[in-house]
Amino acid sequence: MVFDPQLARTVLHVGCGVRKPEKLHSLFRSGEWREVRLDIDPGVAPDIIASITDLSMVADGSVDAVWSSHNVEHLYAHQVPVALAEFRRVLKPEGFALITLPDLQAIARLVAEDKIEEAAYLSPAGPITPLDMIFGLRSAVARGNEHMAHRTGFSAQTLGKALMGAGFRHVKVSKDDAFNLWAIAYVTAPVGAVDAS
Questions:
Q1: What's the pTM?
Q2: What is the per-residue pLDDT for 194?
């Protein structure tokens, strides 16, 4: 499909990192979506240089979706409501946020089994241990990238509560087999959805 700026919907890709097509969720990889990349690190050449706690350069109700992959856990707990409220603010009334981040309950099972430093899976960055999932990719932090440190964490329940607290009307949180939580949070409950409030 060819990109048509007149028909395209906009996805704000927060914490985008280095430009790689596979970083954009498959939902947004069609001609109907236009990606706007936002990151705190100017070195990754984002469209917008900003923290996810201050999206003031993005107008209220101006994007159709927010895509956040492994970003929110890098905030301190007191910053999470601010960031989620910013996600909510920039979305159009029919918009939604798609968020993925580590599942602390799944990770805790490995910790309880004393597998804290064993590789849980292999990523493009190398082996990932429970300690990496809890505290951030230690090899990246050791190289000086302190943005990679994790400062908070979530269960499915706490993530859902945080999104509802930020003003989303309908939230669904699920888990995968790779130690991740996935949340889709709608500004307005979609047709046929049960109101989550």
A1: 0.91
A2: 46
